[in-house]
Amino acid sequence: MPEVPEVPQVPAFNLTELDHQLLAMTDEEFVYHDWEDLKSIIARNDLGALKRKPSDLRRYLAWTQETKAKYGTIMNYICQQRLKWHLPLNTASGSDSAVIKQSGLPATFKNPRPFADPEDYKILRNDWPYGVTPGISHLVVWLRTPIPVKSDEGHLTDESRAMINTFVRKTFVDRLAKDPQNFPDPESHVLWFKNWVGLQSVRALEHVHILVRDVPEDILFEWANE
């Protein structure tokens, strides 16, 4: 079993009360999110209730600190190493939310409407998924294009929510619908959510979380190419 690192004395992000509770737990005490629990959390927009397994949270804290020390921001790492996108980057230390604003460079998306151009988004597996029961996979759709929100907290507008729903249906639900024998009700195998600002670990780069249930590896690879 991989060694679990100590929690950094000064974590790379502010820990919530739930984080502190998790860090005081063992993995054996942790209750995993099942599909019904995830549906309930997303339906009531209680996204702060999503949690990682205690040992994974410790590893995530250590990884975040190391990655920020090496790349300046998590966004820089995501763009350079995971997305291979050449966005205006500030590799010095600083908040992710300031990176693009300080650059003074033009936007790098091809179409200002989110999801309109495939080159403006990329689907990847989540490197640090929440603690979920077996059979649930966590993907992230990363976008070059900002998604309009209606408040500083980052809550979606009705139009943005409809736009994401359409993309999720066309990309994920419709793909599962091609296999009616295994997915007679494909919509029941897909959930999505978008964290509001206070919960985002990469604030300057738009992203939407996708959860899928009982989807085989070959289809996951189709979506994420990894």
Automatic annotation (TrEMBL):
Gene Ontology biological-process annotations: N-acetylglucosamine metabolic process
Entry's Gene Ontology cellular component terms: cytoplasm
InterPro entries with a match to the protein in the record: DUF3605
PANTHER family in alphabetical order: N-ACETYLGLUCOSAMINE-INDUCED PROTEIN 1 (PTHR35020)
The name this protein goes by in its record: N-acetylglucosamine-induced protein 1
Organism field: Penicillium flavigenum
